[in-house]
């Protein structure tokens, strides 16, 4: 549990940028988002829906499957680690535990998620994606 919390929160903080540095996904990451979700707007809609569906404490992840070169949105419970549960590489994560939003947003998790979605670190996600594509190609 504690190890999962450490890993998940490390990924979470890397998933965010200051508002002044916010940007849209680009290059290979954008191409995969377009192919697998129909575009960034559709991905964002899916994240909002999935976040609303998570009951209690958990996370929503944008994960990458090296085997089939596809992106997936996946919820995890508590401090479960995405890679250990699914084999997916986490590109971005959103903390849905109350401690992440309660002081500022009270019970309005949706408002918190909307705010987080404006400061996602797409450069971090792209970097993780490209690093894992290189690793995947070394073994083929």
Automatic annotation (TrEMBL):
Residue span(s) of domain Manganese/iron superoxide dismutase C-terminal: 26-126
Coiled-coil region list: none
The keyword Glycoprotein appears for this protein: no
Pfam families: Sod_Fe_C
Superkingdom field: Eukaryota
Keyword Protein biosynthesis: no
PROSITE patterns assigned to the protein according to its UniProt record, in alphabetical order: SOD_MN (PS00088)
Protein name: superoxide dismutase
UniProt organism field: Myxobolus squamalis (Myxosporean)
């Amino acid at each position: 549990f504690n190890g999962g919390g450490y890993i998940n929160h490390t990924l979470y903080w890397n998933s965010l940028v200051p508002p002044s540095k916010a940007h849209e996904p680009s290059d290979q990451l954008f191409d995969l988002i377009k192919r697998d979700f129909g575009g960034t707007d559709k991905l964002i809609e899916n994240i909002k829906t999935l976040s609303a569906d998570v009951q209690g404490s958990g996370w929503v992840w944008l994960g990458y499957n090296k085997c089939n070169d596809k992106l997936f949105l996946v919820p995890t419970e508590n401090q479960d680690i995405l890679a250990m549960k699914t084999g997916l590489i986490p590109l971005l994560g959103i903390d849905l535990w109350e401690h992440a939003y309660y002081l500022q947003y009270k019970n309005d998790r949706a408002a918190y998620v909307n705010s987080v979605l404006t400061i996602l670190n797409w450069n971090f996600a792209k970097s993780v994606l490209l690093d894992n594509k290189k690793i995947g190609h070394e073994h083929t």
